Amino acid sequence: EINVNRFFQAVETHPIIAEVRKEADQKANIGAQWHTDHSYDEIPAMGSILYAREVPAVGGDTLFASMYAAYEALSDGLKQMLSTMNAEHSSRHVFGEVAYSDRDLDDLGSRLGNTDAATQDAIHPVIIRHPLSGRPALYVNGDFTVKFENWTQVESQPLLDYLYAHARQNEFTCRFHWQQGSMAIWDNRATHHCALNDYHGQRRLMHRITIDGEALQSAAA
Description:
The protein is an alpha+beta fold. It contains five helices and 14 strands. The strands form four sheets. The protein has a five-stranded antiparallel sheet with strand order 1-2-13-3-11, with no helix packed on it.
């Protein structure tokens, strides 16, 4: 079962709802890097639901990218190579103690906690077969993918960087503009998302629910 509040503060009286908050005087926001939720879990999240409680007058949109489209646009040769590969994902370098000491995140630590609980590591296929649609999708992301299985991080990084840049091309993306009361529901197996941090001096408060998923299978299986 997904622990939605392992690192996020829970909404009082509603423990399955996580609070995603940035105050007007805070600099760092949560989710600014392209990612898919909970890829560091052995059984990743199927989907996420995000509800806007308070939004800035300008900015704070969320970008989404299709990993179906990203996969389809790869060359046949790269598709073939990636279809045989797995990648390691981890929560440590985003939510762990090292992450906080390595970056200037003002008081982000007051909104994200339990650094000692950042022990999740998982291995997933680089190209998954979506369990419902049956379509292949690219499944690596800049927040949580550490390296390819049986590769070093140094060897992995150039190809990972290429795949991240490829996946966020404009033709694969859309932009969701929030209003108070807006709700977005997305499939974490088929999309990446990132939250824009372009509303300095304004408050943004969102409530998030995470939907349990199932183990991911290789598209080559």
